[in-house]
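Hi everyone, sorry if this is the wrong subforum. Our group has a chain we'd like a structural model of before ordering constructs, and none of us has done structure prediction before. Sequence below.
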Amino acid sequence: MPDDPRPPASLPVVDLREWRTGGPDARRAIAAAVDPALRDAGFLLVTGHGVDAGLRAGIRSAAREFFGLPTELKERYAVKVGGRGWLGPGAEANGYAEGTRTPPDLKESLSFAAQEPTGDAAVDAEWFRPNVWPREVPGLRAPAERYLREMRTLSDELLELLGTVLGEDADFFTRHTGHPTWGFNINWYPGTRTVGEPAPGQFRIGPHTDFGTVTVLDREAGKGGLQVFTDARGWQDAPYVPGAFTVNIGDLMARWTRDRWRSGRHRVLPPPADAPAEELMSLVYFYECDPGTDVRGTDSHTYLRAQLDAITAD
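Answer:
Right subforum, don't worry. Here is the predicted structure as tokens:
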């Protein structure tokens, strides 16, 4: 018999079209799949989202132009973790968030974040600063800004789904996302032809959990790709469904549910030695909540700032 192409039951595929248009039975079936998956791994695959594949391809094409620029041009946009601009080689070590002193992550990123001011000068200075768009790649801004609008809409829809799964009102989470923070990284993972052989314990992204509510990931399949951790099975390659988003919950969501759902622990494998030309690119949207939101006794953005600081490589 051929291999079963479906992901394991612990990582279900949620069709948002069924959630939007299906009756009570369809919604109960989705909820019955979502809850155990988030208890086990903290991950889902989401289809029926309506985000155009061509839009994502356009962002990748423009971003590849940027990452292919000479280093001295990219350095004009260099920032630290949490900034808006280029995170060059060695900028991040995500394993630090777990207290593991790993070598720096083998990636480069273009990083963007929320920028619409709230009117609170202190909050805006820290969390709502203008984004920086590299002038060398003028084709990036328009599709990226459209994508970001769609990501916020999708993230709120996912939060409404999750609130319903918990048996709460649909706005249980979204009543706290009237003016939320978010982050967006375009992550470029070069192959060994570019970065050389990984050091011992070095990953494209080291083991970690995300920090916010939900993360919406558009990824490419590859040998040096995403792995997900569960207590029962350890590290496993994350199932890949073309066109689907990979969605995981972060630390704030886990705390919000009193750890009923786990913050999805994951890593991105090192570039494979037997595929030295492999280059992957991920579009990663990190959704959070309104500044000052109290999440079970934790100030959401005090926590977020501490975690962003923690993953800055030495």
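For your construct planning: Confidence is low (pLDDT under 50) at residues 1-9. Residues 77 and 85 are 5 Å apart (CA to CA).
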